[in-house]
Structure formats: C-alpha cells, structure tokens
Amino acid sequence: MTAEPDGLQDRLRRFATIWSRAVYQVTSTSLTRVELEERLLPLAGRLSQALRARTFDAEEGRAVGAALVSAHCTDPESLSRSLDCVDAYLVLYCGEDGPQEDLRARSSRLQHAMAAGYAGALRDRTLAEQEAIAWAAQSARSAVAEALHDSEARFRAVFEGAAIGIGIADLDGNILQINGALQRMFGGSEQTVRGRSVTDWTHPDDAPQVWKLYEELVRGERDHYHVEKAFYRPDGTVLWTNLTVSLLRDADGRPQYQLALMEDTTERRLLNLRLRYEATHDALTGLPNRTLFFERLEKAVSAGKGQRFGLCYLDLDGFKTINDSLGHAAGDRLLVEVADRLQSCATAPGEMVARLGGDEFVALTTGPDTEAEVDDLAARIMHALVAPVSVEGRELTVRGSIGIVEGPAGERGPAEVLRSADITMYRAKSAGGNRFELADPEADLKAITRHGLTTALPAALDRSEFFIEYQPLVHLGDGSVRGAEALVRWLHPQHGVLGPDRFIPLAEHTGLIVPLGRWVLEQSVRQARDWQEQYGGHPAGGPLRINVNLSPCQLTHPGLVQDTVDILERAGLEPEALCLEVTESALIGADDDLLKPLRRLAEMGVDIALDDFGTGYSNLANLRRLPVSILKLDRSFTQGMQQFPADPVDLKIVEGIVSLAHSLDLTVTVEGVETGAQAEQLRILGCDTAQGWYYARPGPPERLHDLALADATG
Question: 130-134, 339-343, 494-498, 693-697: which has the minimum mean pLDDT?
Fold first, then answer.
C-alpha cells in the first residue's frame, strides 16, 4: 500500500479521484471525468465530516445519496460502485485518528443513509418528472406517456440493479415487490419471499425497540428508522442485515407504503465475532485471556444480593527452570497440556478457566454456595496436576501454588479480588509450593504494606526520613563504654518509627541498600568524630569505636573501599575507630574476590566483626582465612545465662568459642545482654565486650555521651 497524503484536503482529493474513476464509466453525463471529480469533492468532504462528527447525523449520508442523483449518476451501477468506494476508502483516507471499529460502523451507517437518500431522490425525481408530465399532458399526451415510460424504466433499472436489497410493502406488512439483491440474500424464490408478511420475520435476537419502531412507522408517527436485524432464511440459516425502513407517503402526505433497504452484514458479523474471539482468548491454549476473565470477574463481584464467587489463582512451581533447560517450545507444550487439564476441572455451570499470561492461570466459580465449591475446585486442580506431562520424551512433574479468594458479591472490585488472590498465591509458594492457601485479610495488608514501603523507599532517603540510634558497647572487665553500634531507623509518615527488620530486606531487594548504607556510614563516622571532640576516647586508651553494619549487597559493590576511605578522610576519623559488621551467613563459602575489599579495609586499620556468629553453621576452621578481628556471638547462645545457675551446656559452648577466638587473636562481643547475672557469667568466661538492654537500649547520640561521662567521673 502506498503512503497516504499528508493533509486532509489531499486525502479528500485522492478519495474524490478514486470515486470519480469508479462511477464515471457508468454515468450518463456531459461532464468530463475531472469535472465530475470536482462535483464529487464537496460530497467527499461532507462524508468525511459526518464520519468524524461527535454525533452521527444520517442526514449527511442521505444528502450525499441525493446529490449523486442530482449529478446524473442514476445508472444502477453508479450507486453500487459509490457504496463500494465509500466502504473501501472513506475510513482509510478520512478516519486515520479514531477507533477503527467505531469508524467502520459509522461508515456502514453512512452507506445505508446514502442508499436511502439515493432511493428517495430517485423517487422524488421520478415523482417530479411525473408531475411535469402530468402538467404537460393537456398539450402533448403522447410526450407525457413517453416521458413517463422512460422515468419508470429508469426507476426499474435502479430498483433491479441495486447492490443492496430493496423491498416495498403496504402498511399491513404485505410484501409487494422485492429486487434481485433481496431475493438472493434470502436464498429463495421471489414468491417465497413475497408470500410472507413483514411481521412474520421475527428473530430471538431482535432488539426490544425494533418492533416498537415499526409500529410507529406504519402509523405515520415516524418517517424512517435504522436497526441491525437478523432474519431466518428458508433453509434455517441466519441472515444479519443493516436495515433501513422508510415511510412512503402519497401526494397528500398520507402513509401509503414502506420501503426497506437491506445490507447483508452476515460475513462482516462473523468476521467481528472471530476478531472478538481472538481478542479475548489466549492464542497458545485457547483459554479465555485476561480481558475476558476481567469481564466475567467484574460481573461476578457485582452480582445481586445472595450471590457469591470463588477465585483460584494458580502459578506453576519451577516453570522457569523448564523453559531455561528445555526451551520455550517445550514450555509451551507443557502450558497447553496444563490448560487442557484445567479446562476439564471447570465444567460446571458458573465455572471458567483463563490464562492470565506466562504460567499463571485462574479458575472462577460463581453461585450462591461457592464456599465449598471453590475448595473443591482447587482440590480438583491440584489432583489434575499430579500426573506427569510427557514433553519431548521426558516425563515432567507439574506442581502449582494456588491462592484462593471467596466471598459475597458487591463488597470488592475485580482488581482488589485479583490482587488478594495473587498475594495469597505467593504466600502458598513461599510456604513450599504444591499447595493452596485461603486469602487472609491480615496477610494481604502486610503484603500491601510491604509493597507500599518498597515504593516509598527511594524518596524516603531524599526526604531525610531515616535517622540513627546508637547502642553502647561496654567492656565486661571494667564496665567502660568502648563505643556504640549504629542502628538505622525509618520515621515513616504513616507507620511511625520502623526498625531495620521492616525495611532493610526491602532496601536490599531494590538496590537502595547501597546509597542507604553509604548514608548510614557517613552519619555514623561523623558522629564518632563529634564524640571524640567532646570527650576523647575510652578510659583504657584509644578512640571510641563506631560499629556499622554492612549488608551482603554492599560487600559486592565495587565502590565499598573507596567510599569508606572518602568518608573517613572527610570526617577526619582514624580507621581504628571504625568497625564494619558483616553477618556470618554473608561470608559462608565466600571466595577471594568477595573477601578482597574486606582485607583491604582491615589492612587500613578498620576492624571487621563477624556478626551473628553461630547462626550460619559455618566451619570454624574458616575463621583463619577471614579478615575479621572481632566475633559477635549471637544472643541465642547466651539466653540460658540470664538466670543463675546458667545452663551448663551453654557455658561449655560459649567457653569453647571464646577460647577458640582468643587463640586466633580475635576479641569476642556478646549481643543481647539483659541481666546482671548474664553479664557476670560472660565476664567470667572471658568475653571482652557486650551490648544489650542491661546497659542501654538504642537511643540518640547524647545518651552515649552521658554514659561516657559517668565512666569518666566514676
């Protein structure tokens, strides 16, 4: 197809050129083709305006049809070619910026109106000619008779040669005349069609207003109406038409006949149905797709009182592995087999299965008692997935996780229901998969809150919503404050103060942990420098140390070492005053590349602490290769020491760890110290420093200042 002209006038000119070429050969006129084109150009403009108008006006189409008669395009083929031209090119050249389906429908209505206007103009022209003949009859009866014969012949030629079906009936509905096109539409003989009454042609799909409009027309209350109507053919098949019915009046204005113009739209309707099917069904599995499912779900959740619905949201477990290992073709065959099995599970009235995309499917059931039905439906789905699927000679085990939402209609919208089912499905998957879970409003709220926090994280740092609290590190030997651990908090506008357990995993997942960690390090180092300027170091000599946690994501960030060096230099703090805490689980199986930045920091003088030691089940021999100088013993090892006497097993374990650490020149810090008995026992076992609520809860930096002053004056 060649490119369309740029401007609307150019496109109208092109359309008028095509139109004039189509009708010129069958038009009896003294005009040249170019002159005929100039005659048709304003008509093309009227059609274009009618096509794009906010409100459809059939009068424009009728006026164009009448203008064709005025341009002497009265040969039967002229109307047919004009309608074909409008059908093929009007939307193409004049409707490029609108919904194509709506423009096509409006173009079809314009064609009907043109045909009606054409027929009416021919009728009026014939009547005018007849009046002229009657007026001249007094002086030349032979001339009048000849002119009348010619006029009737022209009308008959239009009537018989029209491409659309034309029928004339009296006001009682008796069919008087039909043309060949109408006879061919119904596929019967002329007598078969003419032998029926208009009122016999009812169809179950008739719109309620069709016969109301008909009654108004035969009573003379309206001059015409246009509807889409279906008819039964003699062989039982259905004919779909765009039907325009007009009232013909006599010279005194009294209703006399009814004229019907019919366009066969059966093939167009079948095409639209096929396009609708393709738009609402999944191309791979043939199941309804997301679009059709949402339509059904919206009806289900907005049904009347007493109605309920149940939704199963299925996601296949491990499908990505199948795609990655066997290829997408094998994955597609697996999806087709799963779709067939799911389809066999939802055969009862009110049940449907759809594919949302990828390996996600949904099953919907509706009715007054879906509480039991949806559980049964989920069980049938799980059972249907038990049998292996054969793909490329391999027996693949299929498992799935299902989230179930059930409830009364009218309380939630479709998007909310689907979101709840999706959240519940992921809860089933995180619980191990191959199971189904029922929706829990509290769990939904947590997931939604988690999503909201994830979304708000990037802007929170820019809005200075984070702050740091400090928990003192106390020497067990003399009770002096040796430093503090920096613990970040989030002052959320809606949820208040959030601890790191609420947002650090989210920050790691989104990658925000790197800039957030850099900010925490910078603030903590600056605070350590302020403490030193206020009251120097701890009583045993050396600077107060600030402990800052590093996440696994920060360990792999290439700028870790340089960022740390820059922050220390800008604050004027010596490296010995900084301790970076890394969890034991982050270093399990760590290779040399991961340990390299930690070694560089340790060589600079920065202490590296192995946090939560004892929770990662690592080989103790690995401690020799790790660049750590401090072990932070997890609180789970010392909880048994909170009362006296302490658990002897705990004592032996802690004693062994402390002995091993000291033999490797490592100091031991204990977390979670809550009682004096616990602190004393840890001191006896040789632990070096401790932190916990027994000494102080995390708080503002001023609290550490007060504790340090108390040590200095004590």
Answer: 130-134
Q: Dihedral sign for Cα 216, 218, 224, 229, please.
A: positive
Dist. CA 20–CA 34, nearest whole Å: 8
pTM of the prediction? 0.50
What is the distance of C-alpha 37 from the center of its chain? 49
Residue type, 521: L
AA identity, residue 236: G
- β-pairing, 435-438 with 607-613? unpaired
d(CA 395, CA 272): 41
Residue 440 phi, psi (nearest 5): -125, 115
Residues in the chain: 714
Give the Cβ contact number of residue 194 at 10 Å: 16
The values of phi and psi at residue 558, to 5°, are: -65, -20
Per-residue pLDDT at 223? 92
Token output for 152? 């009737």
* Highest mean pLDDT pick, 4-8, 215-219, 449-453: 215-219
Three-state DSSP class for 287?
A: coil
Q: Are 261 and 244 in contact (CB under 8 A)?
A: yes
Cα–Cα distance between 210 and 229 in angstroms, integer? Answer: 8
- 571 pLDDT band, cuts 50/70/90, is very high
Each as own residue / partner, the long-range contacts of residues 538-542 (CB below 8 Å, 24 or more positions apart, any chain) are 538/475, 538/480, 538/481, 538/482, 538/483, 538/708, 538/711, 539/478, 539/480, 539/711, 539/712, 540/475, 540/478, 540/480, 540/482, 542/576
Q: Rounded to an integer, what distance in angstroms lies between the CA atom of residue 64 and that of residue 73?
A: 12
Closest of 527, 545, 548, 525 to residue 537, by C-alpha: 545
